[in-house]
Amino acid sequence: MPTSELTFRTALDADVPGLVELIESAYRGDASRAGWTTEADLLAGQRTDPDGVRAVVRKTDGRLMLAERDGELIACCQLEHRGDHAYFGMFAVRPELQGGGLGKVIIAEAERTARETWGAREMRMTVIRQRDELIAWYERRGYRRTGQLTPFPYGDERFGIPQRPDLEFELLIKSLD
After folding, report:
1. Cα 37 to Cα 41: distance, rounded to the nearest angstrom
2. What is the pTM of this model?
């Protein structure tokens, strides 16, 4: 997929409704099954909400990066500056565009941005441990599993309604040096 078709920019408050729709479509419900990043078998309910996305957009120590093609929002990711490293999250690609190499381009741009903007030496993220295929995708991009686990926020439906009792997050790390 040619990168010349893509433009990247930092999200604004006006982008919040489109971002919520994009993130929900990539992770929840039947629409998410068109792609391979769905969490619909692990979690029901919402992935995020306007308040949660707006909070990320307004963070002074980070940004929500958008990828657009011909003015259309097709992907996003969160970058947060945390000292010597950056946190990567809220990564979503339109389900019908998944599997075509777009994710690789976006994560590479996110890594470049974190390195050049903040001097980040490492990118970190948390992924639901049970998402073997997704973790393998990140490993192919140079991320490594740490074995450091944190519990899923059961009882907080802002993050979804768990469909199994054993969900937890694992920290993945990649050196940006």
Report:
1. 11
2. 0.91
